[in-house]
Amino acid sequence: MLMVLVSLIGCFIMLFFVGNKVVKEFNFAENNLPKDSVSFYKPIQVGSIQTRIELAKSTIEVIKDNPLIGVGAGNWKVSFPEYGLDQFAREVQLGKVNYQRAHNDWLQLFAENGFLGFICYLLFSLIVLYKGIVKWNQKGYQGTLILISAFLSFCVLMLFDFPRERVEHNLIFLVIAALLIKSDENIKIQKKYTNKIFLISLLLSLFIVFIGYKTITGEIKMKQIQQLHTNGNWVLMHKTAVDLNSSGYDINPFSMPPIWYAGVASFSMNNYDLALNEFKEAEKVHPYNVNILNNIASTYYQLGDRDKAVAYYEKVLEISPNYDEALINLAIIYYYQGEIDLGLKILSKCSTKSQHLNYKKVGLIMTKEKLLSIYNDRSINDQKKLKIILAKDDLIIKFFKQYSFSGMKFDRYVDSYFR
User: Fold this and answer.
1) 32 φ, ψ (degrees, to nearest 5)
2) Mean pLDDT score of the chain, rounded to an integer?
3) CA distances (Å), origin 92, targets 47, 111, 290, 311, 407
4) Tell me, what DSSP letter sits at residue 18?
5) Per residue in 382-392, pLDDT tens?
6) Mean pLDDT in residue range 342-347
């Protein structure tokens, strides 16, 4: 009874804290190259049937590449962005939403634990169902039929949701499984084995409490980091993030490593060498996170290594071709290199509805300079029209958006516009 009591108390403690999350992310999207090139994001709810289908497709790709042993428990959220984000909602493409689960526990189980883990879980479920059906056939208890139905419901729910992640669901699931496979015969266990079972259970309970404590204190620290960022206290924010990372808390509930937050603080203090090291360490934890890769690119730019900056911006765009920040920053780099046509081409890939702070600003500067460069080569009538456009910033931005929407090369669009 003591073992059961300890377990139940532990479960209720964990349920209380799980139900009262202390971490809230926030949004800080001032990414102005060449200076403010790091940002926080605010996860928002994005979900639909189509989203679940796309998540399933990406998960299947993860399974194809890691069929035997999977990518490791809890690593689905780190691995799936490798297969692209352009099929998801815009918030996902921009790195404002990081999916934490596949919304299909069976697929996620296969992706994380491979065929071996998947088949073990499946066999366990089938054995429980078999035992329950045999018991129902022999005894005909209505209660047994209800338990079988509940167990099957859990298995079906796993096709559309993530009940395995919830402590309370797992507790109910295991209790139902135990009742279904329980023998009606009284089995006597020798006292020496009873003591060993109790000791093992107690050690496991203590381990679970320890992990729960580390998780809860980690989330409290994340809350502190949020407040420190809001207050601009970069020194204490950096120290808190480094301490949290050193404690073994390697990734938060929104798939961001604590050391990334340390990198944000270092970058904000203009310590770019340290920021680069911290962002690179964060990359090891989450190698396909567009925010981390974008920050590495921006830091390389600050350090004067434009080639590596370009390489990392291109990595971001391989994962998320519509990621505004990377497109804008990459366009600026080419603009400063004198490749204005290439810069305009890259910038035109941004959504014309982009809310990024630099989208209109950069589009205005580059488009105006390009139109001025071709002014003398146009006819008198074209020059009159160009004067009208160049007289107002709003008209220049409108011209740029129309060019972006056309999908044409800039010079060709100019010819078609004045035709």
Assistant:
1) -105, 100
2) 84
3) 11, 21, 10, 22, 24
4) H
5) 899 999 999 99
6) 95
Residue 116 and residue 69 in contact, taking contact as beta carbons nearer than 8 Å = yes
E-state strands within 116-222: none
Handedness of CA 368, 371, 376, 380 (dihedral sign): negative
pLDDT band at residue 187 using 50, 70 and 90 as cut-offs: low
**What is the per-residue pLDDT for 189?**
55
Query: Tokens for 186?
Result: 């009284």
Question: For residue 208, what pLDDT is reported?
Answer: 83
Dump pLDDT digits (tens) for 189-219: 566 667 777 788 888 888 888 888 888 888 8
CB 37 within 8 Å of CB 31? yes
pLDDT interval class at 49 (50, 70, 90): confident
**Residue type (1 letter), 173:** F
Q: Please name which of 359, 364, 362 lies closest in space to residue 324, comparing C-alpha atoms.
A: 359
Give, in degrees to the nearest 5, the angle at Cα 146 between 145 and 148: 65
Amino acid identity at 166: R
Q: Which of 49, 45, 109, 41 is nearest to 76 (CA)?
A: 109
Helices (H), 140-190: 142-157, 167-181
Query: Is residue 252 within 8 Å of 218, Cβ to Cβ?
Result: yes
- Torsion, Cα of 168, 174, 179, 180 (10° steps): 130
Q: 40 - beta bridge partners? A: 28
The arithmetic mean of pLDDT across residues 281-307, rounded, is 95
User: Residue 7: what pLDDT?
Assistant: 42
Backbone angles phi, psi at 28, to 5 degrees: -140, 95
Residue 13 has pLDDT above 70, yes or no: no
Q: Please tell me the number of Cα atoms within 13 Å of 60 on its side-chain side.
A: 6
- The single-letter DSSP state of residue 25 is -
What is the number of residues in the chain?
419
CA-to-CA distance for 74 and 90, rounded, in angstroms?
25
* Token pair listed for 398: 């409108």
pLDDT band at 22 (very low <50, low <70, confident <90, very high): very low
Show the tokens assigned to 353: 């509805």
Whether residue 40 contacts residue 25, with contact meaning beta carbons closer than 8 Å, is answered with yes
DSSP at 251: -
